[in-house]
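Human: I would love a firmer grasp of how sequence relates to backbone shape in proteins. Take your time, and here it is.
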Amino acid sequence: MAARLGALLVTLLVAGALAHPAQAAPRRAGPIHLQARTPAARRTPARVDKRIPSLQRARELLAAVKRDPNKRRFRHHWEKAIRALVQAARGKDAPVALLEAARARYGLYRFSAVESDRDEALKLATRATRLGSHDAARFAAAVRREAGDDAPPTKTRVVRPAVPRSDPAPARSGAGAPAAVAASEGRSQDAAGHADAAPAGDDAEDEGEESADAELDKVVADAVEQPQATPGKDHPATAGAVAPEAAQAQGPAHVSAVKTWSSRDYTRVAVYLSRAVEFEQEEIAARSGLPRRLALDLSPALLDGKALARPVGDKQVDRVRAAQNDADTVRVVLDLAGSDAYQIFSLDDPPRLIVDVGTRQARRDVIAQGPRPAEQEKPESPQPAQPQSPAQAQAQATPQPEPQPSPSTREESGEESDEGGRSGAIRRIVIDAGHGGHDSGAVGPRRVHEKDVVLEMARRLAVKLRGAGFDVVLTRKGDVFLPLEERTAVANTAQGDLFVSIHANAHPRRDRQGIETYFLNVSDDRYARRLAARENGLVTGESDSGGTAKRILADLDARSSAESSARLARLIQREVCTGVRAHVGPVRDLGVKSALFYVLLGARMPAVLVETAFISNREEEKRLGSVRYQEEVAAGITRAVQSYAARESRFAAAR
């Protein structure tokens, strides 16, 4: 009996042992899996804090980009902050974080003019809308309206009265608009009575149309967090500097570099800063064997690195020095070799202080010395002498001196400059292809880059101008980045006779199209201000153009110089539009306008900026990439330069 009970017990135990794994098997993955995940789950919060930013941290990253002009200029800083906002879109923070990422991406679009940035902003706003954000829905609708994808909200639209024309053909510039019409539309006029911002013919209805959507205006305004700018206490040249209270909160500015460009009759000095800062200027007369000096005291400021003393060795500036003058003041000193006048002005984003030194007296001395250095890019080509306009002004308070003629040509012709103007052949044309290097310029819907197409047009233009007998200087020959102040310095030190900067336009409305040409002036037109801001590398279109620029241009005796530039602009606008219509197809003539383009500021010659087409428009983007269109634009500019030179030659002969 006991044996049977023992056998039964063994059987039961064996059966239980066999049954246990069968029952545990389906549950084994559960407990073991949970045990494997439980420690990781406990560690997850610590890893999230390190790798996935909180919404507050993401906001801090974006604010740092907005505040710092050096970070603001580089895409990877924006991308990092926007990526942090998207990663912070978790739980209840998701709708807010996605909307803020969408707004930041749109702000980047307004800075970059890259169409894919706006598309991504719409995608982010759509995600936020699906999570219940009504603000995101309004923002997305505003962006679509701006792009022309949705109908605008019903509102009263003010339509300008049509300007009567005796000629049925559309006007190609503002030249034909009556003065009264220009005044009634709030446009300024140049010395010849031409409306400097007049729209062209039938395209006037589109001119100046801007997004008036408060939602988008706020996004653009928030794209830059800067202290309010105030004029300097003692020197109007410090307008645009940071208010003292705000400067104290930000800490001292850093002086990172001092660069110089020079020729025999011109020197440009650029002082690069981490932020705008007040400065005082003092001219110290020559005495006790020391030269005449210009001292600039920047405060509060710190000099990065050691004190510098850089020889320049030209007739205007012998040496440039920079040192920490006291605990919070950096002193920059220019040892002036002669009695030449100088101009001081500031540029934004990134902040830099520009000093131009050189006068007409110095240029007359250069003429007496003989030919300029053999720096042209081709041998001299036979060409009849074509004297320039006598209407070139001397700059008094900003760098827009009169153009520089060829000394060799002047010697050959026996002509001399006088105080009222100049004469001499127009021989050297400086061509500036906009953007380059890390600055791609605007990027179209098909990813065509502005920097590439304008360089191709500049090369084609150089070939045609050389074939017409002109010397040509290219500010850039390849895909390299040049600061705007360096481009103007290249033109001035090369002693060019005309300066043409080539660009492709961009606009939030995808249906905007056409050609327009600009010369330097202060514009009251919001569209022109925003275009200038994009080309100047600014995020917003306001800058200080209404204050400092007006003072700069008012202090100049720049009327005749602006008149020469406007005349060249009208010729280019007419010839390019006519040629494109004849050989490529219809094109909208948006006319000749003026705006504060940094690349034109300080040019010592008639200078214009040509917006050859809208790369943001799919059809015109395709045109810009075509050899046929590039050739026709180059041919039109060449004809305009030839016409300008011939007219100036006839005018000089009649004197």
